[in-house]
Amino acid sequence: MKQWQIFLMAGLFLAVCNNLGDAEAAASPVTISTDITSADILEGEEYYTMATLTLTSSDTTYRTMDVYLITNWPSGVAWTTYFFDANDDLIEDYKINMSKGGSEIVNFAIICDGVCSAGDTNTVHIYAKTDPKFYNYDGNVTDTCGSSDCKNDTTAVTASTNHTNTISIDLTARAAYHSVITCDAVASTGDNKVYQSNATLWGYTLTNVGWNTDAYQFTGQITNADGHDVSLWSITPGMADGKELTGQSNSSSIAVHAADGAIVIVPANNATSGVYNVELTVTSTNGAPTAGCDFDVVVPGLETEEETAADPANETAEEVQEESREVPSVSLVPALISIGIIAIFRRK
After folding, report:
1. Mean pLDDT split into 10-residue runs, the chain, 348 residues
2. Which CATH number describes the domain made up of 179-302?
3. Domain boundaries 21-174, corresponding CATH code
4. What is the pTM of this model?
5. 92 Cβ partners below 8 Å, 6+ apart?
């Protein structure tokens, strides 16, 4: 046999031995797939989003394979995650064991907690380290077998250099329940004046900006900073308690996310003139933060000094009055001269 042939065969034998002896250095035969690549996730510790991961092993050499599951958050903001097996039992230490050529289902739960608010986006990467387990039958194996003594697997899967593929899930945080209310700038009459015993309508819009469908209760209140009696005023919110609006998760054409209403304000028949504040409060049935709006209404009456100064018509009236007061002071001079002349003639 020629020398180069001997050298080539020796090299081939060495390569085979190295492949057998350094199984961790090879590419992982395990691949991961997921049923979702993006998801909406509700903020709060009481909610979670679940992805189903499928791990498949193409290995045909080793009886079993240790798999160590790993998550990575490129943003640096890590939300809480858990791995569960197909029976919904928690996977301890993120480790599972796969049979030769087998597959496993892993349920991956994500909780939007910590630094997480509605509208935030985040991405989680998932991959795994794998390591074949070695078995010795007679205790006398002397060939290279992937461990230091051909009897025990001395390298932990967490230290393995075999990495599976990486999958990504993009997440968008949503508020489960949240609402916004917007009141009009003026009443239906075009201003903010209300009159004793007369009903005035003030419009508003209630919008469910939460992810889930919600229902609401309504409360109206009127106050006066000067302490005027408001006990006989009437205020009706304009929507009945129990009003339901569809959540933003329902994007169908029949979904109703917003509703328009009108507050009915009726001052008492003896309401004192002045400025009053009207407040509308909307309470969520499912615990969303209270929403509301408030605005001022005016019961006309005697104008205040400030209102008079701001009225051009009143300013004109004041100028006329001022001029009329100034006229006598000007005409007083010739009158005094006339009186003096008469006095002189009488002395003569």
Report:
1. 37 36 61 97 95 95 91 97 96 94 96 95 97 62 50 75 95 97 96 97 98 97 95 96 97 96 97 97 95 97 50 48 46 47 45
2. 2.60.40.10
3. 2.60.40.10
4. 0.69
5. none
